[in-house]
Every structure is written in structure tokens, then in C-alpha cells.
Write a structure and sequence with these properties.
The protein has 376 residues and is mostly beta strands. It is 10% helix and 46% strand. The protein contains three helices and 31 strands. The protein has helices spanning 4-15, 280-292, 295-307, and strands at 29-37, 51-58, 62-70, 83-94, 97-110, 114-118, 121-125, 136-143, 146-154, 159-160, 163-167, 170-174, 177-178, 181-182, 186-190, 196-199, 212-216, 219-223, 234-238, 243-247, 251-252, 255-256, 263-266, 271-275, 318-323, 328-334, 344-348, 351-355, 358-360, 363-364, 367-374. A four-stranded antiparallel β-sheet has the order 1-31-28-27, with no helix packed on it. It has a four-stranded antiparallel β-sheet with strand order 2-3-4-5, with no helix packed on it. Strands 6-7-8-9 form a four-stranded antiparallel β-sheet, with no helix packed on it. The longest helix has 13 residues, at 280-292. It starts with a helix and ends with a strand. The relative contact order is 0.19.
């Protein structure tokens, strides 16, 4: 146990079931370019990158990204304080580049809430350091080329690290931390009547934070996430029956892949794409050792854990696509940059935008990337 790093950071990378395995039947290719960098947040000279952001698409030409958190003063390894931001950016998509055309500050700092793109704009649910704003439902729109943010409702609970989808004028909020506690609870929120109704909970675990989910073929699909241990399971929800059904686990060639902390986008009515995801074994070990070691052993573990390079954490680099009709996963290859956790992810046409995110525990990237999907 004293030599934790040799076991939990190095050996596990070769042994874990959450390894990166390429499927042989890649149907499309995706090429990546640097898309630019976000301007500095208010009061700072540079933007060091953030994780846990608001993100979505407006008017099929803009990407909105905002909030999130980082450690701007001292690294988390030495007890640095986390900072959450109120900055929201409107980025115009010009081919492979993202250009900032508006930058505002919301009245609250926001981070680790849930975003969904709709015909009305981008809804952002929960996720605020202000206790009075941690259950807010915000709507982000563009009005005459400028950002407009308004509060349109309140959840009956606070929310962090959960998921949200929209269907027929209702928001569907699943799992995460509700009222500060991890849960599998599932709710609908009617945007017209402002009524919240608790529905059948997400199966598989009583606590499920940081899952991914999209509505495909008229049903809600939810995958992975975790608690003190990581999950790779998947379920779909039938809105008419208020029932969940088991679907394929997240896997390639029989090897499980965890998506805890990843982000997803809807490609079409039957497919979703996922980028990122913590390594299952490293996550499980870290939670175990950080919760059980004491004194010198704990200090040594933290030094080696937080001091490891990004690649040593073996986060998922596969560009994963789930097909709901076939109930199967495939890969479009690997991202050519560090696997992100909590990044902004958006799609406009054949362009996929990956914005910032954490690249190892406590460390963010300030880069933005554009992926171009090339069909055969």
C-alpha cells in the first residue's frame, strides 16, 4: 500500500478493463484542428481553462460556453482553492475556428450544472456556488447578436453533476447530486406550468453522478457515471410507460469503457457521440485510497496521484458513438489531444467542438478543438 503509485497509477494502466480499444468497423473519420482559446475571465489576465461548463448551440451558428471552475492560484495538490466563474461566452463558428463575439457575466457563478440545446435556446439547470441559484433553470439565447440570459424556473432541489434532456416542452433531469446528495432520482419539469414530477428512478445504482444521456428514437438513454465506484451500464426510458429497460453496456470488443465525467452530443435521431471519461480502475482505486489512507501514506499517495502525467490516468480517448437502433457502440478513432473531463461539447453540422475540460485531476486545458466528421 505504501508503494501505491506503482500499482494504482502504472500497473493498472495495462490491466484495467476500461482500456482504449479501437473497433475494426470505423464507418467515418474525424479530423481535428485547434479552434482557438477563450478570453480571460473578468478580473484575470489569462484563461487557464475550466471544467464543468455550461455549453450548447444557438441558432445553428453559435456555440455558447460559460462558467466552470479551475484552480487559478495554487494547484489542488497543495491545497489550492477552486474558483468558479460567472463568465459566459458567445462563440461564432467560422469553419474550424471559434471566434468570441460576446462575453458577459451572469449574476451568479455557475459550474457543474446540466445543459441542453433546444429550439428555444440552451437551458442550464442547477450548478451555482450561490445556494439561492443552485436550483435555477436558466435560458440562454441570442438577441440581435448578443447573449441574453434569463431565469425561467426553479427546480424543487439543487443539482450538480447530473443530466438533463428536453422533450415536448418538458425538461427531464436525471441523477447527479440533488440537494447535495448523490442519487438516481429522475424528474420532469414542465416549462409552461412550472410543475415538477418525480418519475421512475434510473436503475442500476442508488447513486449515479456524472452520467451521459440523450434522447434517441423518442426514448432517453443514460449511460455510465458513478459514485465511489465507476459504472459502465446503460438504460433507456420509455416516456409513455414511465419504465426503464437495460441496453448495451459501454464497451468496444468486449472491453468496458467508463464515461464518468464525459460529455455527449446528439448526432441524429438514432446516434449520440461521447468524448472523454475517467478510467474505471483508477477512479475506484483513488476513491478507496483517498478515503482510507492516513498520515504519511496519504500524503505520499496524494503527491504521486496528483503529480502523475495526464496519460498515466488512462482516461478514455475513443470517440465513441452509440447507435440506438443497433444497440451497439463503435469508435471513430481516438482524439489527438488529452482526454477531457467536464469539457464543453457541441455539434453544428459536420463540426464537433470540444472546449476546455480537465485533463488530469485538478488540471485544466485552455484549448478548444474542432473535429470535422468525414463521411465515406
Amino acid at each position: 500500500m505504501k508503494k501505491f503509485a506503482l500499482v494504482s497509477i502504472i500497473s493498472i494502466l495495462a490491466l484495467t478493463g476500461c482500456t482504449n480499444v479501437k473497433a475494426p468497423n470505423v464507418e467515418k473519420k474525424i479530423t481535428w484542428e485547434h479552434a482557438g482559446n477563450l478570453p480571460a475571465q473578468k478580473g484575470f489576465e489569462i484563461n487557464k481553462g475550466v471544467a464543468g461548463v455550461l455549453c450548447g448551440v444557438l441558432e445553428d451558428k453559435y456555440v455558447v460556453v460559460g462558467g466552470g471552475a479551475n484552480f487559478p492560484f495554487e494547484p489542488t495538490a497543495v491545497g489550492g482553492a477552486k474558483k468558479t466563474y460567472s463568465d459566459i461566452y458567445l462563440l461564432e463558428a467560422n469553419g474550424s475556428k471559434l471566434t468570441t463575439v460576446d462575453h458577459i457575466n451572469w449574476e451568479n457563478e455557475i459550474g457543474y450544472g446540466s445543459s441542453v440545446t433546444t429550439k428555444d435556446g440552451v437551458y442550464y439547470v442547477g450548478g451555482s456556488t450561490n445556494p439561492d441559484g443552485d436550483n435555477d433553470i436558466l435560458l440562454v439565447k441570442v438577441v440581435e447578436g448578443k447573449l441574453k440570459v434569463e431565469k425561467v424556473g426553479d427546480l424543487p432541489f439543487t443539482l450538480q453533476n447530473g443530466g438533463v434532456a428536453e422533450k415536448d416542452g418538458k425538461l427531464y433531469v436525471f441523477a447527479g447530486k440533488q440537494n447535495g446528495a448523490g442519487t438516481n432520482k429522475f424528474w420532469s419539469y414542465d416549462l409552461t406550468t412550472k410543475e415538477a414530477v418525480e418519475l421512475a428512478p434510473v436503475p442500476g445504482a442508488d447513486v449515479r453522478t456524472q452520467p451521459v444521456g440523450q434522447i434517441l428514437n423518442g426514448e432517453l438513454y443514460v449511460f455510465s457515471g458513478g459514485s465511489s465506484v465507476a459504472y459502465t451500464d446503460g438504460y433507456k426510458y420509455n416516456f409513455e410507460k414511465n419504465e426503464w429497460t437495460k441496453v448495451a453496456d459501454v464497451a468496444l470488443d468486449g472491453k468496458d469503457i467508463c464515461l464518468l465525467g464525459a460529455n455527449s452530443i446528439k448526432l441524429n435521431e438514432t446516434e449520440m457521440m461521447v468524448i472523454g471519461g475517467f478510467n474505471k480502475q483508477v477512479w475506484n482505486d483513488a476513491n478507496h485510497y483517498l478515503g482510507t489512507l492516513k498520515g504519511k501514506q496519504l500524503a505520499e499517495y496524494k503527491a504521486q496521484y496528483f503529480g502523475a502525467d495526464p496519460y498515466e490516468f488512462n482516461w478514455n480517448k475513443n470517440i465513441l458513438v452509440y447507435n440506438s437502433t443497433k444497440n451497439e457502440w463503435r469508435t471513430l478513432g481516438e482524439i489527438p489531444f488529452d482526454a477531457p473531463w467536464g469539457e464543453g461539447l457541441a455539434v453544428i453540422g459536420d463540426k464537433v467542438y470540444s472546449i476546455n475540460g480537465e485533463i488530469k485531476p485538478g488540471v485544466r486545458t485552455n484549448r478548444m478543438f474542432t473535429g470535422t466528421i468525414l463521411k465515406k
